[in-house]
Amino acid sequence: MVPVKILILGAQNTGKTALCVRFITKRFIGEYDHKKEVTYRCSRVVDQEAVDLEILDIACKESSVASLESSIRWADGFLLLYSITHRLSFLEVPQLKKLIDQTKQSLGRELIHSLSHTVFFFVPTVLVANKADLEIGREVTTEEGQRLAKDLRCGFRELSVAEAVSAVEAAVFQLIRLVLDQQRPLPDRRSYMLTVRHALTRKLTRALMLLLLLTVITTDLSGFEETRQRGTGEDDDNNE
Prior knowledge:
Blueprint: E1 2-10, H1 16-25, E2 38-46, E3 49-57, H2 65-74, E4 77-83, H3 87-91, H4 93-106, E5 111-114, E6 117-120, E7 125-130, H5 142-152, E8 155-158, H6 165-183, H7 186-239
Parallel strand pairs: 1-3, 1-4, 4-7, 7-8
Antiparallel strand pairs: 2-3, 5-6
């Protein structure tokens, strides 16, 4: 069973605890009031891989910077939450992501080396826009969330924890997949990329062959039409 540790971060009242409970129990409870960190544990199967999952939910407002950095060092992946009805929670996200990146960099994990290539370390992160059911109070558009996720190199999900457990599971599973890919040994990643490249090459080769065949057929048809027209012209001359 593969261990995966997830840290969920975001401003107060964005639905962090509700998301955790929804994912673990499938139940939704709207009001929570906890001022200490809580770790949720469960097992899931993702893409036929058994995962031993830990989700750490901390009260960012009550946590010191040192405590927050310690939690970031502990985690393999991150869920960053904001509420679409609270613009300030959206504006806090870049600072949280910056702290995540800086903390991981301090661990010497900013860069990984593969042969003669240098690859920038990717921190598995999914940006989650919560409370999508409260459209009438929306302060952050979907497009703004998508743009921020792209800028921060995150996955993106807009959902309502209150309405759909399937959407919550999809967001967590997306992050788990990013973490598992990050944990995959580098030779496996290279093998996977080679497989993808070979598959794309085969598809491209077939497409080029089809294009060449169509070109030959078109050329032959053009030549046939030209010959036919010349033959028709010669027949007309003979008839005269």
